[in-house]
Amino acid sequence: MKKLALLVLVFSLIFVILGLGEPIKYGGTLRFIGGGGWAQFPDSMNPLLPEGGFSPVVAEIYEVLFYVNPLNGNITDLLGTSYEWKNNNLELDINTREGVKWSDGTPFTARDVAFTFNYIKKYPALDQLAVWSSTSGLESVEANGDNIVVFKFSKPNTPLFYYLSNIPIIPEHIWSTIKNPVTFKNENPVGTGPFLFKSSSPQNNVILAVKNPDYWRKGRPYVDKLEIRAVKSNTTSLLMLLRHDADWGDCTPADPKKLWVDKDPELNKMWWPVNNANILYLNTQKTPFDIPEFRKAVALAIDKESLVEKAYHGSCGGVAHPTGIIPSQQNEWLDPLLKDVNLRYSPQKAQELLTSIGFKKNSRGELMDSDGKVLPTYKILVGAGWTDYITMAQIISKNLENLGIKTVIDQEAGSTYMSSIMSGTYDMAICWWAGEGPSPYYYYYQGFYPPFSGSKIGETSLSDYARYTNPIITAALETFSKTSDIHLQKQAIYAIERIIVEDTPLVFLTNRTHFGCFSEAYLVGWPSDSNPYCAAEVIDSPGGAMITVNVHLK
Predict the structure, then answer these.
(1) Domain boundary among 174, 203, 231
(2) In the predicted model, what is the mean pLDDT of residues 375-385?
(3) How confident is the model at residue 205 (pLDDT cuts 50, 70, 90)?
């Protein structure tokens, strides 16, 4: 017994002397709580479909090739270990990791990667990132032996690497037998990731996953289990965190510092890096939202400073720039001529703009269109229980009432909410940019590129939620993708910014952060300013999976 104690002391001293810190403690359960939008988890774990991708355990089961940190562009090798562009950027070779096994024991090879990409080509409904769109330039994907995948292009498109990196890789030996992958729910998922699906309880809205004992990353994950729970509101999520019934919450308390951090500064942590924007989407396939002047009037009518203070108590990073460029990218990518452009709260300017297109109030204060017809009551769609979005919707509704526009707030559960947005059945909706990445290209690409848009209401719009396209924006995006000349890329982005400012296809409200509320009561290793190994993404993403393999017992 004395010898054992001496050994423990010696090893502890070695860790301290070498600056390695305390030895990692293994075991325990990581408990994640999702509020509001996850009032009910989807019943699918198909990683190639939107509803399956929203399942909070899928990213821990199915891995991607590389994780590209959208905050700083740093790359973490996952199923891919290296890559190289060749032949004037017309060929991309990716080396895949050796010694990896699927969770059923079958070896993983480059052929699984090639199969995945050709599979989503065969079934376009699975191509959520439009890597096979007619304009992407991707021509073929083939395996060259067990550990090299070769992507060939008809034209250079180096930004596509970010999207290729984010496709979940599926096992050929299983999915090649699936008759209809578009309806396949994948109830027994087989992946290469750090966790294995154990059980799901729809009644209690709980999903359990356990550590993959054969995970290729030796020693990871540190925790033995994941317990993922959904509740109906951010308030309930916060209460569970405060009671130490959860370790990690995706919730947005009205005042996170006061209601979360200040309750116990030693244990209660938050890291909310700005990575996106909150947007009021106006369905441009419906009148009057198809009129640019009307959209700009709506933008001018909204008190965005009030949104920042009342929805987030200043914790969201401030009012969003009218171009949607996030603060960390403005120095490099914002057109200097647009630096001081803003659409500050100005009900008078909004009213004048409406008058200029023939929209006037009647004697009852109701706004009429240019034909003298009173505008109908519009719905503002938000996620059920999302207190930040509900607060914003209430303020926006009051602001628009001052213009004579009547609105009601429509709360829908997460999966239904996204379905309504993507199918274009909404009038107005508060949501985020669908894309993110190390430059504005990725936001604009997914936000405006035609393959991501639905041509008519009812047709799925993968990420162009406003259903707005513009040939000049399309041309600028294609110019950006064809060149590695930073000057030309900036000019392309500047052209897009000017159109956005002029045409107002989106109403940018506030900057948006990931809402990481972390408890150190039992676990440590959370991302932070000093350790930004990911962008504090939600658990249903590759960035969220990075958190699950890094946290460990205190």
Answers:
(1) 174
(2) 96
(3) confident
